Amino acid sequence: MNKLAALSVGLSAFIFTVLIPILELNTTHLTNPDWPSHARLHEAWQLLTNAAISVLGLGCVWTSRAPRLGIILSLIICISFLIAWSLGSSYGGSMLHSDGTQVAVEGINLAVIVVSVLTVLLVASLWTIRAPMFLQRSET
């Protein structure tokens, strides 16, 4: 098993199956009384989907059956978040809480920092995984 892949996908799984749900199971997100019930349904769906994809990715890496796929599944979640964040102004999305505050380091939202670092780790781990034999060039 590739240690960097196990570490980065394991960290991703922890973030998306434990940390994010803990942070979002409150009145600022999932149980926010100001959110329409339809938006809360989408929030629950997103939390469950990200957790399921994370666990699947972790299984792919831990069993060594499909480590590249496991890394790619984790990357899909991270890159989707970063794209949604970067396009927020086009659809009215924001990382600011309803009271206008955010958890930030040097003015950069902490979630954006964490997911950016995680993305770099995942890309680095993908780089270290050997390509399947049918994709490698023959040296004959």
Summarize the structure.
This protein has 140 residues and is mainly α.
What is the first-to-last residue Cα distance? 28 Å
What does the overall shape look like?
globular
Average pLDDT works out at 92
DSSP helical segment count: 5
Whole-number count of domains: 1
Helix percent reads 55-70%
Order of helices and strands: HHHHEEH
The order of strands across the largest sheet is 1-2
Low-confidence runs of at least 5 consecutive residues: none
Number of distinct beta strands: 2
Radius of gyration using CA atoms only: 17 Å
Largest sheet: 2 strands, antiparallel
Quaternary structure type = single chain
Structure in words:
This protein is mostly helical and 140 residues long. The protein has one domain (3-131). Helices cover 65% and strands 3% of the residues. The protein is built from five helices and two strands; from the N terminus they run H-H-H-H-E-E-H. A two-stranded antiparallel ribbon has the order 1-2. Strand 1 (104-105) and strand 2 form a beta hairpin. The longest helix has 26 residues, at 37-62. The protein is globular. The mean pLDDT is 92.
For this entry, give a set of tags.
140 residues, mainly alpha, two-stranded antiparallel ribbon
Please render the helix and strand layout as text.
Blueprint: H1 3-24, H2 37-62, H3 67-86, H4 88-91, E1 104-105, E2 108-109, H5 110-128
Antiparallel strand pairs: 1-2
Helix pairs in contact: 1-2, 1-3, 1-5, 2-3, 3-5
